Amino acid sequence: MYQSVGASVTKYLDIQEPLELESGAKIGPLRIAYETYGWLNKDRSNAILVCHPLSGDAHAAGFHDGESRPGWWDIAIGPGKGFDTTKFFVICSNVLGGCKGTTGPSSIDPATGRPYGTSFPVVTIKDMVNVQKMLVDRLGITQLFAVAGGSMGGMQALQWAVSYPEMMRKAVVIASTAYSTPQQIAFNAVGRKAIISDPAWNKGDYYGRRPPSDGLSLARMVGHITYLSDESMLHKFGRNLQGKETVGFDFSTDFQVESYLNHQGDSFIKRFDPNSYLYITKAIDYFDLNVRGSLITGLSGVKAEVLVIGISSDWLYPPYQSQEIVTALRANGLKAFYGEIRSNYGHDAFLLEQGQLNYLLKSFLDQASAGDVMSRAVHTIREDTTIEKAAELMIHLETNHLPVVSHDDRLIGIVTSWDIAKAVARGLHDLREITTSPVVTTTLDEPVEEAVRKMEDNGISALPVVDRDNRVIGIVTNESMSYMLNKCR
Q1: Which is the catalytic residue, given 347, 348, 369, 372?
Q2: What is the pLDDT of residues 93-103, one digit of tens each?
Q3: Which of 158, 270, 307, 398 keeps 20 to 30 A from 429, CA to CA?
Q4: Could you say which of 8, 45, 151, 322 is catalytic?
């Protein structure tokens, strides 16, 4: 059932205008590295932004040319997977401050012609999200179907829901938190101390010379311990010795778990910039969506439907923090759901538990509502419009349905191309003579199945989507249904 997206290529977007950061500093020009999978439908309504964790990058799925290892979330992105690329257009970008193509401390400062180093301004999760918003805007997407991520990616998804509530319909937050706790900050602080204490760090000015590899390796080893669980380490390593029959009674590597952590540290230094580790962990530490000590207040502006997934054995971001997010969202009257991956893998389970993860994602993302399939590019006409003008507008817009509204923009009827054809044949001129009223309508939250039933029961091919004031905010047509099903790209 699960297939790969195949070959993938990292693309780059250059933005000349500077970005003002939360700190008040400005950074620019910016380069954003990103990858996309699947196809954007004609209505541009099927885009999902996937946000990566600390050590991730834009390469979330598929294979780069000449590489045998797929993207970091290949288990979840592709045909038939949770982020089904036969239905959705999936976007993933490297975060601001990273080292995999997006502007960060290893990038060249145009003012000096040298790498920024620690002259790069400190960034936050909100700053990262603002850069992602720039990318989404440049791709011509006015609203995302969903924003999703695990760990630090989950923080970004939640920040999106707070910063740009109108820009997304759904959010998926996995193995994450709404604010960093003292314990989480403490682990990050130890990692940064390890890097800064390495003499080769040289206050961040090590480019072109030996980098602080020992410090970064140690930081990764400490961090990686938090991604596992006691049970998983016991199952994987036990107290097994590494390449010897008995302990050495010295300070060499005795146990397999030691060798494993050394390997993790050594491999990490080959693909990550120490300064980026400093900046990204600092952004995680600063993350806090509480407002005046209240998470309910901090999440009060969210409008998206949210799925929060915890991991049973995660002690870095334990399940109670995921449940706390759901409680705060529900207190604001929002649709929020909690799911849990049962696993002994610890925090890393969202990168490993393919079956459970994809089941939860598909169950949530496939629950389409009328708002998910509607076209927002809906045009209306006033009740005093002539039939001739209505006909001209239909031809110009290439549409078969025009909702009729009053002078205060409330829906009062609908006309179709068939109605117009009959009016012309009969020599009619008054739009009110052919307007169908009352109108069968739907709402943003009504399940697609119910909208389909209404259309079938009434023998109609379109349903205006109205808000609480009976104002038209979209339209569901047979064609827009087919967009959602990816039949018309």
Answers
A1: 347
A2: 999 999 999 99
A3: 398
A4: 151
